[in-house]
Amino acid sequence: MARSGNIFNFDLILFISMLILMVLGVLFIYSSGINSSGELVSNEYLYQIIWAVLGIVLFFVLLMVDYSIIRMWAVVIYFFSIFLLISTLVLGKSVNGARSWLGFFGFGIQPSEFAKISTIILLARYFENNKKGVKKLSVFLKGMFLAVVPMAFILVQPDLGTASVYVPIFLTIAFIAGVQKRYIFFLIAVGSLTILIGVLPVWQLYFIQRQIAFVQVLTNPFLFRVLGGALLLATVSAWVGFLITKQRYFYWIGYGLVIITSALFASRMVGKVLKDYQIMRLIVFIDPSVDPQGNGWNIIQSVTAVGSGGVWGKGYLQGTQSHYRFLPQQSTDFIFSILAEELGFFGSVLVIALFALIIFRGLTMIFSSKDTFGSLVIAGVVGMFFFHLVVNIGMAIGIMPITGIPLFFLSYGGSSLWTALIGLSLIQNIYVRRYHY
């Protein structure tokens, strides 16, 4: 039987961290709208305040809804989000080359952001319903399919950055649910190796500038088929050897060969799916000086802004990179760069510490919840927050490719802000009712 619990008995540390980050977000979105003459040329901060106030109302409304009701409606919520993603492809408007936005009464929403939450909820319910058979490969694959469906629609937009967030969401939930670790490692290994093989031809063209035998094999259609055929033959032979002899070393040889073969063929698809600007982002990530006035400009200016902040920063509203408009998407993708320039290392550590508190409290709540569904929902939200934090800040300091992933609470945008607030409301909802199930 569902119980409401005391909604004001939530985790105060998590709530205060959230509020501080939202205040910092408004402050630095305001700063991003100041030009070199000290004039305010953007009212984005006003919209952010409105979204923040409405978002806090939404936070408490969801906190009052027992999460067992959310579990019950998980399938409906998921398919509604898929419907919105399909509608976006048909009716949405294009922003920065991606058809990611739906307009309602003059306001735009990004369904791919909210679909993260619906996917977390459905995956949590799915793995809870299949906890007795969670070690089975079929259970793992079906769960992966639930994450791949929204990913596919988002990739078509195309929005590679947002689509990539669904990978850590799925892997985190699957890990906490107790799936075989070798399945998780397989996905991580195939994904990493696919990217590595996929960028090798670009690496040879722009950086080595001489022919490498292995890369020639990858780019020559005939040699690629020969290599692929040899790997397939070796893989089949290893698995046949395991089936006949039952020797474990044949199993692990076959396992490794499947990873290599899958990555090899997936790398061919990467070259056909990725757009030119996405490939250039990988190139300038390796070396921004390849295109310093074009695709490399973002990284160069962002790193310059972060580095110029020093220990204590230049002071609030005293930044130069943003006020002279050197930073593109400075209120969204590169909001951390403005903060680091104006508040320095101290301010950067403060922001990271606040996110660390949220993530740490989330991790402790995973194990304090007596309910499998609740634990898995928290795991998905924590995985989402961690990925956004690492990728966005990594992007700002030049150790991650530019993907367009926002920094929750700080980056301008109602959809990402509400997604973060809904995620934390779910965590608090489960925490408040941790003894009721």
From TrEMBL:
Keywords: Cell inner membrane, Cell membrane, Cell shape, Cell wall biogenesis/degradation, Glycosyltransferase, Membrane, Peptidoglycan synthesis, Transferase, Transmembrane, Transmembrane helix
Keyword Membrane: yes
GO CC annotation, single: cell division site
EC number of the protein: 2.4.99.28
Major subcellular site: membrane
Membrane association type: Multi-pass membrane protein
PROSITE patterns: FTSW_RODA_SPOVE
Tree of life domain: Bacteria
Entry's localization field: Cell inner membrane; Membrane
Record field: catalytic activity: [GlcNAc-(1->4)-Mur2Ac(oyl-L-Ala-gamma-D-Glu-L-Lys-D-Ala-D-Ala)](n)-di-trans,octa-cis-undecaprenyl diphosphate + beta-D-GlcNAc-(1->4)-Mur2Ac(oyl-L-Ala-gamma-D-Glu-L-Lys-D-Ala-D-Ala)-di-trans,octa-cis-undecaprenyl diphosphate = [GlcNAc-(1->4)-Mur2Ac(oyl-L-Ala-gamma-D-Glu-L-Lys-D-Ala-D-Ala)](n+1)-di-trans,octa-cis-undecaprenyl diphosphate + di-trans,octa-cis-undecaprenyl diphosphate + H(+)
GO biological process: cell division; cell wall organization; peptidoglycan biosynthetic process; regulation of cell shape
Protein purpose: Peptidoglycan polymerase that is essential for cell wall elongation.
Family, similarity comment: Belongs to the SEDS family. MrdB/RodA subfamily.
Protein name: Peptidoglycan glycosyltransferase RodA
Organism whose genome encodes this protein: Sediminispirochaeta smaragdinae (strain DSM 11293 / JCM 15392 / SEBR 4228)
Gene responsible for this protein: rodA
